[in-house]
Design a protein that fits this description.
The structure is a single chain. This protein is rod-shaped. The longest helix is centred in the middle third of the chain and has 82 residues. The relative contact order is 0.06. Strand 1, helix 10 and strand 2 form a beta-alpha-beta unit. Helix 5 runs antiparallel to helix 6 and helix 6 packs antiparallel against helix 7. Helix content is 67%, strand content 9%. The chain has a five-stranded mixed sheet with strand order 1-2-3-5-4, with helices on one face. It is α+β, with helices and mostly antiparallel strands. Keywords: 4Fe-4S, Cytoplasm, Iron, Iron-sulfur, Kinase, Membrane, Metal-binding, Transferase, Transmembrane, Transmembrane helix, Two-component regulatory system. It catalyses: ATP + protein L-histidine = ADP + protein N-phospho-L-histidine. It is an enzyme of class 2 (transferase).
Length: 405
């Protein structure tokens, strides 16, 4: 009989057992015909043998060539009924001709395949008893081996089969657990990737578009305040706001096309991009200066350049919004194995120890966002400040190191 889920090894074993059934039955029938003349009893035995072969072949054919797969309950009920019919015909046949007793071997296999363990063991015991009785009937005298031998072989075969069946079931469960775990892991990785991308976009928007909109708002408010008494100065604020709008538009287009930061793409390098940023951020309230130390060429990794530029943008946004500084200095230093960006201001400063720690994976802005950017590249962030003494923010990023996952 074929299982519901076809396993190659089990399928091969089933074919061997089916072949064994027909070989044993044919051998027993030939032996019976050779030793018994043509009688009414002989005709009955041949008829029963043919009926047994037909019933067994019908069960095998049904599983092998069925075009529609029934439900599990219907299939199991049909198999139990099929096995009962085969066993009954075989039992009657063995009663008439003990030579057919050894056909019980493939029937034991079928019982173990189809029935639950307890029911299968009971049926195996019944089949073994029939085999023992048939062997004793064929023997001229009582032989203990004819009792112990079939019982021992049947018991051993049953124990081995049930053990292998449990192992196969355990292996199947382990495989199902592995498949389920892999699916859950893939789903978790997708969720983690989605959250990481959301965090990245949040920081990108905060450090570019949000900062630009904040600068535009302050410039337009300043223009509104000076419009009547100093039109020239008001127009200057409006022109500065217009430049920021143009830059924000370039950044928005970059988001769509997923390109490098607009300043890097336009200027061709990080130092030039920092100078362009300083030019936009400088006004009558805040002067931004840029210094570079070491050789900063196009060979600097693009992701490092992009990250340091975003850190500079975020740091200057904090300076403008919170520090009340008049001067900020961006210092870019490149060494053999790392790049260092210092952002110093002469503002009112603060106590770094009083800042609450951002939770892991936070999408917060300002320092939490800068810290997250540095951590993504395996770098470090240091903040030195005190009330009334300004602030120095130092971001150190390794060069050539593998980015943490």
């Amino acid at each position: 009989m074929q299982p519901e889920e076809i396993d190659p090894d089990a399928h091969w074993l089933s074919l061997v057992m089916h072949l064994t059934f027909f070989v044993l039955q044919a051998t027993a029938l030939i032996r019976f015909i050779q030793r018994h003349p043509a009688t009414v009893n002989s005709a009955l035995v041949i008829t029963l043998a043919a009926l047994l072969a037909v019933i067994y072949a019908a069960g095998v054919g049904r599983d092998a060539y069925a075009t529609t797969k029934p439900s599990a309950r219907r299939s199991q009920a049909w198999r139990v009924g099929w096995l009962a019919a085969v066993v009954v015909v075989w039992a009657v046949l063995v009663e008439l001709a003990p030579s057919f007793a050894w056909v019980a071997v493939p029937l034991i296999y079928a019982a173990l395949r189809i029935l639950p363990p307890v029911a299968a063991c009971v049926l195996v015991g019944v089949l073994t008893v029939f085999v023992i009785i048939a062997q004793l009937a064929l023997s001229p005298r009582f032989d203990l081996d004819l009792v112990v031998g079939p019982a021992a072989v049947a018991g051993f075969a049953t124990a081995v089969f049930l053990h292998m069946k449990r192992l196969a079931s355990r292996q199947r469960r382990l495989i199902d657990d592995l498949i389920r775990t892999r699916r859950e892991l893939a789903a978790t990785e997708r969720r983690a990737g989605t959250l990481a991308e959301r965090q990245r976009l949040s920081m990108e928007i905060h450090d570019t578009l949000a900062q630009g909109l904040s600068s535009q708002q302050m410039l337009l408010q300043a223009a509104e305040r000076t419009w009547d008494r100093d039109p020239a100065k008001a127009h200057g604020h409006v022109r500065s706001a217009t430049k920021i709008v143009e830059h924000n538009l370039a950044e928005a287009r970059r988001f769509v096309h997923d390109l490098a930061p607009a300043d890097l793409a336009l200027s061709g390098g990080l130092p030039q991009a920092l100078r362009a940023l300083a030019g936009r951020e400088s006004d009558e309230r805040l002067r931004v200066l840029v210094h570079t130390e070491g050789q900063v060429g196009p060979e600097l990794p693009e992701r490092v350049q992009s990250t340091l530029l975003r850190i500079a943008q975020g740091a200057l946004a904090n300076v403008r919004e919170h520090a009340r500084a008049t001067t900020a200095v961006l210092t870019l230093t490149t060494l053999d194995d790392r790049a260092v960006l210092d952002v110093a201001d002469d503002g009112r400063g603060f106590d770094p120890g009083a800042l609450p720690d951002a939770p892991e994976g936070s999408r917060g802005h300002g320092l939490p966002a800068i810290r997250a950017r540095v951590r993504q590249l395996g770098g470090t962030l240091a903040v030195e400040s005190a009330p009334g003494e300004g602030t120095v923010l130092t971001a150190t990023v390794p060069l050539g190191a593998r980015t943490p996952e």
